[in-house]
Amino acid sequence: MHTADVDLGDSPAIGAWFDALVERVGRPGILVNAAGITRRAPAESLALQDWNDVIGVNLTASFLIAQAFAKRLIAAGEQGRIINIASLMTAAARKTTTAYTASKGGVGQLTKALAVDWADKGILVNAIAPGFIATSMTQPLKDNAEFDAWILKRTPLGRWGNPEDIALPAVFLASPAAKFVTGQVIYVDGGFMATF
Fold first, then answer.
1. Is there a contact between 108 and 127 (Cβ–Cβ < 8 Å)?
2. 172: number of CA atoms within 13 Å, CB side?
3. Residues marked as catalytic
4. Other C-beta atoms within 10 Å of 169: how many?
5. Positive or negative CA dihedral for 144, 148, 150, 155?
6. Cβ atoms within 10 Å, residue 45
7. Radius of gyration for the chain, computed over Cα atoms and rounded to the nearest angstrom
8. pTM surpassing 0.90?
9. Domains of the chain in sequence order
10. CA 13 to chain CA mean position, Å
11. How far apart (Å, rounded) are the C-alpha atoms in residues 1 and 51?
12. How far apart are the C-alpha atoms of 73 and 60, rounded to whole Å?
């Protein structure tokens, strides 16, 4: 396994980082844009720096990495797949999540725009929009007994998702089984968005 660190908040560094990574390990054919951060605050008191940080990592970095990835494939005349990680917040919102919601709404539309731009290049672009998944980022929510109970009641499948619940749809989108799927945002949320 190869790893290479980059600060996704440092937009100017992303292209050079990607080029150096490709030179070291070769050109990938599948890209999963999975990084994400959040900063919670009521919209009226959200600091501009927090807004910029969240938009920078969640949306701008996703675009810049996809762009660097696609440029390499297009130059080589090769096809590929991009899988962006969106969110329930791509289509809905909760209090104190203004920047995160805006960024993930942007990821949904970015997915569609890139799918249209690169369809004739053979680069398929889709997104997975996870429901509430048990991760280190959501652990404070899961530890809140009232919120945890609300999720279990609100989600028709009656549980939090786990990372494997997202990994398996990503495998599908990266596989030949998804060769006619592009520009889609697939909600993997235990039925959360299907009910109210």
1. yes
2. 15
3. 100
4. 17
5. positive
6. 8
7. 17
8. yes
9. 12-188 (3.40.50.720)
10. 20
11. 34
12. 20
Question: How confident is the model at residue 92, as a pLDDT?
Answer: 96
Q: Give the strands of the sheet with 30-33, arranged side by side.
A: 30-33, 80-85, 123-130, 185-188
Q: Please name the residues in contact with 56: beta carbons below 8 A apart, sequence gap of 6 or more.
A: 8, 9, 11
Q: How far apart are CA 69 and CA 28, in angstroms?
A: 8
As a three-state string, the secondary structure of 114-161 is HHHHHHHHCEEEEEEEECCECCCCCHHHHHCHHHHHHHHHHCCCCCCE
What average pLDDT values come out for the chain (196 residues) when binned by 10 residues? 83 92 93 95 98 98 97 97 98 96 98 98 98 93 97 98 97 98 98 94
Q: Which helix (H) or strand (E) holds 14?
A: helix 11-25
Residue given tokens 């919670």 in the structure block: 40
pLDDT at residue 75 in the model: 96
For 158, phi then psi, to 5°, come to: 70, 25
Q: DSSP 3-state assignment of 97?
A: strand
> First CA to last CA across the chain, in angstroms?
43
DSSP state of 189: S
Token pair in block for residue 86: 């969106």
DSSP characters for 27-55? --SEEEE-------B-GGG--HHHHHHHH
Closest CA to 115 of 50, 185, 190, 27: 185
